[in-house]
Structure formats: C-alpha cells, structure tokens
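Exercise 7.
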Amino acid sequence: MITLYDYALSGNCFKVRYLLKALQLEFTKQPVDFYPGFEHRSDKFLKLNPLGQLPVLDDNGVIIRDAQAILVHLAAQYDPSFRWYPLNRPGMLGQIQIWLAFADSLTSTISAARLHDAMFFNLDAVAARCGADRLLRVLDEHLWFNEQSGHRWLCDGADPTIADVACFPYVALSEEGGVSLEEFPAIVRWCDRFMSLDDFEPMAGMIPLPLPKSSRKS
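Solution. The predicted structure, written as tokens, is:
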C-alpha cells in the first residue's frame, strides 16, 4: 500500500498526486493540517520527516521525503514505459535533473510568496517575488526556444516528463503569490498544454490563463 502524507493546497503535494494518478497507482491520502494547524511541526510528523516538510510518501514501508525525490522514485519504480523518467535515455536524465533542481528554486520563491500572501507566513515576499521573476524569465526563454525547435515540453522528448510535473504547480499558482505571468507567454502556453493532459485535475488556484496580447509568437 502506498500512503501519501498530503495537504490539499500544497503545490508539492499536487505534483505527487498527479503522478500517482497518471501512473494509475492506488494510494491512500493521509491529510496533514499544514495550515492553520501546523501539524507538519508536530513530534509525530517530524518522526516521518525531520525537516517538517510535505509531502512524504510511504511506499510499503519505504519512507521518501521531498517532492522531487518522490517523483523520481515513482517513475523509476512504476513506469515501465519510461515516459516520465526515461531510464533508457541517459542523456535526457541530465536534462530532467536540471529542472528538478529548478523546481526547488520555484518552491523557495513563488511558494514562499504564496505562503506570505495566502497563509500569513512571516517571509520576505518582496525578495521571493524578485527571485520568482528571475526564474520565470529563464523558464520562459527556455520554453520559447524549445518551441522553435518543435519541442512542447521542458525536455527534448515528445511527451512531458517528471521535469514538467515538478515545475508546473507553483508556476500555475504564481498569481496567488502576487507573481504575474503576463510577461511570459511561452510559460502560459506550456501551462495550457499541461492543463490539457488527460490525467489533469486542477487544484484550487489553478485556472487557465489568457495569452498576453503583446507577446512573442510560438
């Protein structure tokens, strides 16, 4: 049995829920009252994850923390097609790892701004938004050049990978942290593609975004 320690409004938990469903894996959700209960700081939860962070996955007794690590575990363990984590294409794995690390930076910027605005955490929202803007400019430029080469996703393959799953949620939730996507048309197109995937079910705060009128064309 797979158990996901989950918070419904967490972008990091969303990415794990998405992949579990995409892989058609049965799992149990164990809700954790992140806010306002701060249950992730309780002694009981800290025994699972001493860092006090969500999500945590219990895969038949194997405990894995960190959203990106969980994505790697699930795709490597349960996806024989290698679609999400192409173990049969070593060169592409390096690309994926770059974006998994990038996803951590999105968490420390966009998510931090969202925690400040929506959940009143004592964080430096101005610094978080400035950092988010820098990251989004990098992401938008990468996606735009990929589009010119005929690629629709973060990596070179025809299908999305766990790189897209890792980066998507907090980008899609950026408006909740006061971070606008208006200047990033390639990102908006990428979000629209992700939201059009068969297995996609939005969480609260994820809405389709209109393409900016003054934008580079794909």
